[in-house]
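--- STAGE predict ---
source: upstream dedup step, 1 unique chain passed
mode: sequence only
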Amino acid sequence: MIPELGIELPVLLSAVVALLVLLKFHQWIRVWSNLPPMPVRPYPIVGHFPYLKGDIREKMLGFRKTTGDIFSMYFGGTLVVVLSSYEILTEALIKQADAFSARPLDGPIAVVGYTEGILGSTGQQWKENRTVTLSVFKKFGMGNNILAEKILEELKFYLDKLVSLKGEPSYIGNMTSCAISNVICNIVVGRRFEYDDSEYGKFIETSDRIMRMLGGGFLHQWYPKLKYLPGDFFKAKALIQVDKQFMDGMRNFIERVIREEQDGSNKDNLISEYLNEMRKRQETGKQTELSMKSLERVVFELMIAGIETTASGFLWFSLYMLHNPQVQRKIYEEIVSEIGTNRAPTLEDKSRLKYTNAAIAESLRLASLVPWAGFHRCSSETVIQGYTIPKDTMVLPSLDSVLLDEAIWGDPRNFRPERFLKDGELVIPQHFVSFSMGRRFCIGAKLAKLEMFLFVASVIQKFEILPAEPGSLPPRQYRMGATCPPQPFRLRLVERCV
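--- STAGE serialize ---
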């Protein structure tokens, strides 16, 4: 007891604690009361996850219709603000890029400790690694004939593989991933791999598993400590193990290149260029974020993203051709008219094949391969559209909301290449955000666009894409993950008679 007050000490301490909690609660309400609205009340602990069962993409688009273009959600116990219109994405990612370009400190990346490289990093780490990687890409001919020649070299192997199928019903997903991956491998490690290489096949399969497990809908990504529980009910340990397998492969690539660099047999690759730049900065005493660990992640990102986006994009294109044979006919007629059938398409043909480019753009738009532009972090308290976004809040930009917006496209669920043509000329509007926007714009966009053009034009010139079974079309359904490729389907590639 405190005699002067006539109050027991435990009672006084309880009152002080209650007062402090009340003051903190009042402060929290004052700061957070101006958050964007929530579509529905969250559940304790799991937040809005129960509302996302089923087709998560359609659920999120539905929340936009009922709540508005900017809304709040709880992924587990983590607040996430979803940005869902071109205007709001422009406001956040371009006009207020300083506040909205950082990556989160927790969430999906916390499970594997992914903070190096480019995709998962922030600040000087991100800026320096991105700048060096882009400079190497430019050296290797990003967007010009040097890189186009590397793609055309790989296309010869890919087309031969397709010929070997003899027009029989086939699944071409794995061989397509191998072909696209070989283009990246040629740049990153200075070599290609055979399609029937079993170790290389495991590498491709592992990359697909990682992308499926990094989709954002697994509880272990929002409660990283679940990995310490016995067993692996929440698949946290599985993700860590798959990531370790892939990273071990990256280290083997790097070690091999270093050995080949030392004996002079292989110096023309991204790994060597990165290491040379890192050594220069270290030898001059210049502070640098370039490191072996960052290099491993940069290689990881280029391999994973390069395989997934372009290979999946080509598979979606093939699926849309099955559903729209009249479009395939028009593409072939344009190729015959502008190029003929006696030589392969080249980079110089790109500007002439306007309808082909329109069909490629339409397939990327409708597929919306990357529904969300990765989790961003608000690095300072910011106001957008009149709402307050607290410092360190996770922000999720919805690319689906732009690419599938009726107000922009009119009939966004229909496959219609003509929307990208005006008076016979190719017109790509600003709303075409398949490669994201702002500072986090896809670093490999030019490479992906070039690959898509050369693969599409070369395959359509040589083959007709037909259903595996006449009159039976595979459904246009996707597999959820960090990217959304189509569900596996079979088709027939029949050589054209010329």
